[in-house]
Protein backbone atom coordinates (compact mmCIF):
# COMPACT_ATOMS: atom_id res chain seq x y z
CA UNK A 1 0.00 0.00 0.00
CA UNK A 2 0.95 3.62 -0.06
CA UNK A 3 3.59 4.78 2.36
CA UNK A 4 2.48 6.77 5.34
CA UNK A 5 4.09 9.74 7.03
CA UNK A 6 4.78 13.26 5.90
CA UNK A 7 8.45 13.03 4.95
CA UNK A 8 10.72 10.50 3.37
CA UNK A 9 13.88 9.55 5.28
CA UNK A 10 16.91 11.41 4.00
CA UNK A 11 20.59 10.62 3.72
CA UNK A 12 23.21 13.23 2.91
CA UNK A 13 26.75 12.20 1.99
CA UNK A 14 29.85 13.73 0.49
CA UNK A 15 31.00 12.76 -2.96
CA UNK A 16 33.31 9.78 -2.74
CA UNK A 17 31.84 8.44 0.49
CA UNK A 18 30.04 5.13 0.70
CA UNK A 19 26.28 5.24 1.22
CA UNK A 20 24.08 2.74 2.97
CA UNK A 21 20.32 2.85 2.54
CA UNK A 22 18.21 0.62 4.72
CA UNK A 23 14.82 -0.96 4.29
CA UNK A 24 12.68 -3.08 6.59
CA UNK A 25 10.25 -5.39 4.86
CA UNK A 26 7.12 -6.83 6.34
CA UNK A 27 6.34 -10.19 4.79
CA UNK A 28 8.42 -13.17 5.86
CA UNK A 29 7.07 -15.06 2.81
CA UNK A 30 8.70 -12.61 0.37
CA UNK A 31 11.20 -14.37 -1.85
CA UNK A 32 12.40 -11.58 -4.11
CA UNK A 33 13.65 -8.11 -3.35
CA UNK A 34 14.60 -5.24 -5.61
CA UNK A 35 16.04 -1.74 -5.35
CA UNK A 36 14.95 1.10 -7.60
CA UNK A 37 16.36 4.57 -8.14
CA UNK A 38 13.96 7.36 -9.03
CA UNK A 39 15.13 10.74 -10.24
CA UNK A 40 12.82 13.70 -10.03
CA UNK A 41 9.98 13.53 -12.56
CA UNK A 42 11.03 10.15 -13.94
CA UNK A 43 9.96 6.56 -13.56
CA UNK A 44 11.90 4.25 -11.20
CA UNK A 45 14.95 2.53 -12.65
CA UNK A 46 16.18 -0.92 -11.67
CA UNK A 47 19.40 -0.99 -9.65
CA UNK A 48 19.83 -4.50 -8.30
CA UNK A 49 17.78 -7.43 -7.08
CA UNK A 50 18.23 -10.43 -4.83
CA UNK A 51 16.36 -13.63 -4.16
CA UNK A 52 15.72 -14.99 -0.70
CA UNK A 53 18.14 -17.88 -1.15
CA UNK A 54 20.99 -15.36 -1.13
CA UNK A 55 22.20 -12.93 1.50
CA UNK A 56 24.44 -10.75 -0.66
CA UNK A 57 24.65 -9.70 -4.26
CA UNK A 58 27.02 -7.27 -5.92
CA UNK A 59 26.70 -5.12 -8.96
CA UNK A 60 28.70 -2.25 -10.33
CA UNK A 61 29.36 0.00 -7.31
CA UNK A 62 26.30 -1.39 -5.55
CA UNK A 63 25.78 -4.23 -3.10
CA UNK A 64 22.52 -5.50 -1.68
CA UNK A 65 22.46 -7.32 1.65
CA UNK A 66 19.52 -9.37 2.83
CA UNK A 67 18.97 -10.40 6.45
CA UNK A 68 15.91 -12.62 6.55
CA UNK A 69 16.14 -13.14 10.29
CA UNK A 70 15.28 -9.52 11.00
CA UNK A 71 13.60 -8.84 7.64
CA UNK A 72 16.07 -6.17 6.66
CA UNK A 73 17.44 -5.15 3.31
CA UNK A 74 20.22 -2.68 2.61
CA UNK A 75 21.73 -1.04 -0.45
CA UNK A 76 25.35 -0.02 -0.33
CA UNK A 77 26.68 2.42 -2.92
CA UNK A 78 30.44 2.69 -3.15
CA UNK A 79 32.18 5.97 -3.99
CA UNK A 80 28.91 7.87 -4.18
CA UNK A 81 28.68 10.43 -6.97
CA UNK A 82 26.43 13.49 -7.43
CA UNK A 83 24.57 11.56 -10.13
CA UNK A 84 23.50 9.10 -7.46
CA UNK A 85 21.29 11.75 -5.87
CA UNK A 86 17.73 10.44 -6.12
CA UNK A 87 15.00 8.68 -4.17
CA UNK A 88 15.72 4.99 -3.56
CA UNK A 89 12.94 2.45 -3.08
CA UNK A 90 13.09 -1.13 -1.95
CA UNK A 91 10.34 -3.52 -3.01
CA UNK A 92 9.41 -7.12 -2.22
CA UNK A 93 7.50 -9.86 -3.97
CA UNK A 94 5.85 -12.76 -2.24
CA UNK A 95 5.98 -15.07 -5.25
CA UNK A 96 3.36 -17.74 -5.73
CA UNK A 97 0.17 -16.33 -7.22
CA UNK A 98 1.13 -12.73 -6.58
CA UNK A 99 1.26 -12.11 -10.36
CA UNK A 100 4.55 -10.31 -10.05
CA UNK A 101 3.14 -7.65 -7.77
CA UNK A 102 5.70 -5.64 -5.85
CA UNK A 103 5.13 -3.98 -2.50
CA UNK A 104 7.21 -0.81 -2.26
CA UNK A 105 8.82 0.76 0.76
CA UNK A 106 8.40 4.46 1.43
CA UNK A 107 11.69 5.49 -0.12
CA UNK A 108 14.83 7.29 1.02
CA UNK A 109 16.11 10.55 -0.42
CA UNK A 110 19.86 10.42 -1.09
CA UNK A 111 21.65 13.74 -1.55
CA UNK A 112 25.29 13.71 -2.61
CA UNK A 113 27.27 16.90 -2.02
CA UNK A 114 30.24 17.66 -4.31
CA UNK B 1 14.61 -4.64 -26.84
CA UNK B 2 11.55 -3.80 -24.83
CA UNK B 3 10.24 -0.29 -24.36
CA UNK B 4 7.31 1.14 -22.48
CA UNK B 5 5.53 4.36 -23.40
CA UNK B 6 3.11 6.56 -21.53
CA UNK B 7 1.15 9.53 -22.69
CA UNK B 8 0.50 12.24 -22.15
CA UNK B 9 3.55 13.25 -20.15
CA UNK B 10 1.67 15.97 -18.31
CA UNK B 11 -2.00 16.78 -17.99
CA UNK B 12 -4.01 19.50 -16.26
CA UNK B 13 -7.69 18.75 -15.92
CA UNK B 14 -10.62 20.41 -14.14
CA UNK B 15 -12.49 18.60 -11.37
CA UNK B 16 -15.32 16.55 -12.82
CA UNK B 17 -13.72 16.04 -16.22
CA UNK B 18 -12.94 12.57 -17.66
CA UNK B 19 -9.48 11.02 -17.82
CA UNK B 20 -7.73 8.62 -20.12
CA UNK B 21 -4.05 7.73 -19.70
CA UNK B 22 -2.44 5.27 -22.04
CA UNK B 23 0.44 2.87 -21.64
CA UNK B 24 1.89 0.66 -24.36
CA UNK B 25 4.69 -1.87 -24.28
CA UNK B 26 6.82 -2.92 -27.24
CA UNK B 27 9.13 -5.85 -27.74
CA UNK B 28 7.43 -8.41 -25.51
CA UNK B 29 4.28 -10.53 -25.49
CA UNK B 30 1.75 -11.28 -22.78
CA UNK B 31 3.31 -9.06 -20.14
CA UNK B 32 1.82 -8.45 -16.73
CA UNK B 33 0.89 -4.77 -16.58
CA UNK B 34 0.55 -2.45 -13.61
CA UNK B 35 -0.72 1.06 -12.84
CA UNK B 36 0.73 2.94 -9.88
CA UNK B 37 0.06 6.36 -8.41
CA UNK B 38 2.69 8.35 -6.61
CA UNK B 39 1.74 11.36 -4.52
CA UNK B 40 4.37 14.07 -4.09
CA UNK B 41 7.12 12.89 -1.76
CA UNK B 42 5.55 9.51 -1.30
CA UNK B 43 6.04 5.91 -2.37
CA UNK B 44 4.27 3.98 -5.09
CA UNK B 45 0.71 2.79 -4.57
CA UNK B 46 -0.43 -0.07 -6.80
CA UNK B 47 -3.81 0.76 -8.33
CA UNK B 48 -4.45 -2.01 -10.88
CA UNK B 49 -2.73 -4.96 -12.44
CA UNK B 50 -3.52 -7.14 -15.41
CA UNK B 51 -2.31 -10.60 -16.35
CA UNK B 52 -4.02 -10.68 -19.76
CA UNK B 53 -6.38 -9.00 -22.19
CA UNK B 54 -9.58 -7.98 -20.47
CA UNK B 55 -8.30 -9.18 -17.07
CA UNK B 56 -8.10 -6.35 -14.54
CA UNK B 57 -7.60 -6.55 -10.79
CA UNK B 58 -8.09 -3.54 -8.56
CA UNK B 59 -5.92 -3.12 -5.52
CA UNK B 60 -7.64 -0.19 -3.83
CA UNK B 61 -11.16 1.25 -4.04
CA UNK B 62 -11.10 4.52 -5.91
CA UNK B 63 -12.45 6.81 -8.55
CA UNK B 64 -10.41 5.21 -11.34
CA UNK B 65 -10.79 2.22 -13.63
CA UNK B 66 -8.43 0.34 -15.92
CA UNK B 67 -8.80 -1.58 -19.14
CA UNK B 68 -6.60 -3.75 -21.31
CA UNK B 69 -8.09 -3.83 -24.79
CA UNK B 70 -4.95 -5.27 -26.38
CA UNK B 71 -2.09 -7.44 -25.16
CA UNK B 72 0.36 -4.58 -24.81
CA UNK B 73 -2.00 -1.69 -24.09
CA UNK B 74 -3.14 -0.62 -20.64
CA UNK B 75 -5.47 2.31 -20.08
CA UNK B 76 -6.31 4.19 -16.90
CA UNK B 77 -9.60 6.07 -16.89
CA UNK B 78 -11.98 8.10 -14.84
CA UNK B 79 -15.45 9.43 -15.62
CA UNK B 80 -15.16 12.37 -13.19
CA UNK B 81 -11.86 13.47 -11.73
CA UNK B 82 -11.48 14.50 -8.10
CA UNK B 83 -8.85 16.82 -6.65
CA UNK B 84 -7.39 13.83 -4.84
CA UNK B 85 -6.67 12.13 -8.17
CA UNK B 86 -3.73 14.47 -8.74
CA UNK B 87 -0.40 12.69 -8.77
CA UNK B 88 2.27 11.00 -10.82
CA UNK B 89 0.93 7.93 -12.62
CA UNK B 90 3.33 5.18 -13.55
CA UNK B 91 2.78 2.17 -15.74
CA UNK B 92 5.01 -0.87 -15.44
CA UNK B 93 5.37 -4.30 -17.00
CA UNK B 94 6.98 -7.57 -16.09
CA UNK B 95 7.50 -10.92 -17.73
CA UNK B 96 4.44 -13.01 -16.96
CA UNK B 97 6.32 -16.21 -16.23
CA UNK B 98 8.96 -16.12 -13.56
CA UNK B 99 10.44 -12.63 -13.67
CA UNK B 100 9.63 -10.14 -10.97
CA UNK B 101 11.59 -7.08 -12.00
CA UNK B 102 9.16 -4.45 -13.15
CA UNK B 103 10.09 -2.01 -15.89
CA UNK B 104 8.57 1.41 -15.52
CA UNK B 105 7.41 3.95 -18.04
CA UNK B 106 8.28 7.65 -17.88
CA UNK B 107 5.07 8.52 -16.03
CA UNK B 108 2.24 11.03 -16.45
CA UNK B 109 1.99 14.06 -14.16
CA UNK B 110 -1.73 14.73 -13.57
CA UNK B 111 -2.92 17.92 -11.90
CA UNK B 112 -6.61 18.25 -11.14
CA UNK B 113 -7.74 21.83 -10.48
Give structural notes.
The complex is a heterodimer of chains A (114) and B (113). Chain A is built from no helices and ten strands. The termini of chain A are far apart. Helix content of chain A is 0%, strand content 49%. Chain B is mostly beta strands and 113 residues long. In chain B, strands 2, 4, 5, 6, 9, 10 and 11 form a seven-stranded mixed sheet that branches. A four-stranded antiparallel sheet of chain B has the order 1-3-8-7, with no helix packed on it. Chain A binds chain B through residues 1-3, 6-8, 32, 34, 36, 41-46, 49, 89, 93, 95, 99-107, and chain B through 32, 34, 39, 41-46, 49, 51, 57, 60, 88, 90, 92, 94-96, 99-107, 109.
How many extended strands of chain B? Answer: 11
Order of helices and strands of chain A: EEEEEEEEEE
Oligomer: heterodimer
Mean pLDDT over all positions of chain A: 90
Overall mean pLDDT score of chain B? 93
How many strands in all of chain A?
10
H and E order of chain B? EEEEEEEEEEE
Q: Radius of gyration of chain A in whole Å, from Cα?
A: 14 Å
How many distinct helices of chain B? 0
Structure annotation, total helices of chain A: 0
Strand content of chain A: over 45%
Give the low-confidence spans of chain A.
1-6
Shape, principal axes of CA atoms of chain A? globular
End-to-end CA span of chain A: 35 Å
Shape of chain B: globular
Brief digest:
The complex is a heterodimer of chains A (114) and B (113). By secondary structure, chain A is mainly beta.
Features:
heterodimer, A: about 110 residues, mainly beta, four-stranded antiparallel β-sheet, 10 strands, B: about 110 residues, seven-stranded mixed β-sheet, about 0% helix, about 55% strand
